[in-house]
Amino acid sequence: MILRRLRAFAGGLGMLGLLALAAALLLTATPHLANQYTDRGLQDWIGSLGYRVNRYKLLAFTLSAALAGLAGGMKSIVFQIATLTDVSWVTSGEALLMGIVGGLQTMLGPVVGAMVVVTMANELSGFAEAVLIVQGAVFVVVVMLFRRGIVGEINAFLARRSRLGNTPPEASSTPPRAPRAGPAASATAREGTP
User: Fold this and answer.
1) Distance between CA atoms of residues 83 and 187, nearest Å
2) Predicted TM-score (pTM) of this structure
3) Angle, in degrees to the nearest 10, between helices 130-145 and 89-102
4) Which end of the chain lies in a sparser environment, N or C, as judged by fewer CB atoms within 10 Å?
5) Cβ atoms 72, 86 nearer than 8 A
6) Nearest in space to 112 (alpha carbons), one of 121, 124, 101
């Protein structure tokens, strides 16, 4: 009886998590919530188009806080404990590090960042002091070399690759010819032959 209740409860939490993920994916795909990037100097331009920038920023903040609260509540229910380490600045910094390493522009970026950071912490657990040093070094490398995070750089590489693959073959196979000089150039120009 208890096992059946526990399975139903776990299934309900799983469905709630999938529903929250689907809602987040749906909301980030809408063009109106694309205004969440208005902190990058486009506030005046988007405001001149008639959008209420502050309203969209408040909506994005409220939705992210609701999803974070849902995740924290589900964690407390699943593990049946809530400790002070869950609300310390180290946990917030680690979550920020996960997002930056993976990439903040995509939904998959923070997930990949979390996998990288947690795997580093687990693999380096024998060297207690080295974990923070290696995490700091990885953070510096990602910030210096991968400005968009791991997933953002992979997306940019794939976009560049597909853009290069779509060029017409005659444009990519032969370089443009330099114009000829002298009397032969004027004769061939009149005839239309190269």
Assistant:
1) 87
2) 0.60
3) 40
4) N
5) yes
6) 101
Cβ atoms 106, 155 nearer than 8 A: yes
> CA–CA separation, 94 vs 78, rounded Å?
21
- pLDDT tens for 109-125 read 888 999 998 898 888 88
Only one residue has tokens 């180290």, namely 90
The pair of structure tokens assigned to 103 is 């990439």
pLDDT beneath 70: ranges in the chain? 1-10, 27-41, 166-194
Q: What is the dihedral of CA 4, 78, 21, 103, to 10 degrees?
A: -150
What are the DSSP calls for the chain, one per residue? Answer: -HHHHHHHHHHHHHHHHHHHHHHHHHHHHSSGGGGGGGGGTTHHHHHHTT--HHHHHHHHHHHHHHHHHHHHHHHHHHHS---GGGGSHHHHHHHHHHHHHH-SSSSSHHHHHHHHHHHHHHHTTTSTTHHHHHHHHHHHHHHHH-TTHHHHHHHHHHHHHHHHHTS-HHHHHSPPPPPP-SHHHHHHHHHT--
Say what the pLDDT of residue 154 is. 92
